[in-house]
Design goal:
This protein is globular. The protein has five helices and 14 strands. It has one domain (about 25-190): Pnp Oxidase, Chain A, CATH 2.30.110.10. The protein is mainly beta. One of its GO terms (molecular function) is oxidoreductase activity, acting on the CH-NH group of donors, NAD or NADP as acceptor.
């Protein structure tokens, strides 16, 4: 099959398969706080690390949601690693909640204070990154038309790690069992992994 995304036959492909093709994708569990002190926690499946020196991570928000509004207020956010054992809580925090309602409370999660930013992190998560925003960019398409999507990039200025996941000075990703998005309503985690010595 070949198709052009702008002319997709929705009878044959009722939902775009692109997000399922670009998979698995790490989930950015992003917490933010407004200038009035309201706290938001939401998962973003358009998330990744884009630079190592300095470390820069980013996520894309489809539409202007509380996360984006709060980040524009304070220019800070926190990423907490979403793990397989927290899948139910991740799902709960993906639902639309009224502004001022705490997704932490709704999902039965504990807030843990950050050291360098105002947004708290998820205490139950084995790793978290405190980030200071470097860019917020509205995406444009190939015709230079603005999309209803916004890329948020932030420099990692603080890192929290559960010491149980460190071995010989390395973070053991497989032991953390990070949760990944595979498209539609499908998720994956690491059941096995292979380590190779660099050539």
């Amino acid at each position: 099959m070949f198709y052009e995304p702008r002319h997709r036959d929705t009878d044959k492909l009722p939902r775009s398969p692109i997000n399922a093709i670009v998979a698995p994708r790490p989930i950015g569990w992003i917490s933010s706080v407004s200038s009035q002190g309201d706290i938001n926690l939401a998962p973003y499946s358009f998330f990744n690390v884009f630079c190592s020196n300095p470390p820069i991570v980013g996520f894309s928000s489809i539409g202007v949601k509380d996360t984006l509004s709060f980040i524009r207020d304070t220019m800070e956010f926190t990423y907490s690693m979403a793990t397989a054992d927290l899948i139910d809580q991740v799902h709960i925090t993906s639902s639309q909640s009224p502004r001022g309602a705490s997704e932490f409370t709704l999902a039965g999660l504990t807030t843990a204070p950050s050291r360098l930013v105002s947004a708290p992190r998820v205490a139950e998560s084995p790793a978290a990154l405190e980030c200071r925003v470097t860019q917020v960019t509205r995406l444009i398409d190939a015709a230079a038309q603005e999309c209803d999507a916004y890329l948020v990039l932030g420099e990692v200025i603080g890192v929290h790690i559960d010491d149980r996941l460190l071995e010989n000075g390395r973070f053991v990703t497989g032991k953390a069992a990070p949760l990944s998005r595979c498209g539609y309503n499908d998720y994956a985690t690491i059941l096995s992994y292979v380590s190779r010595t660099p050539a």
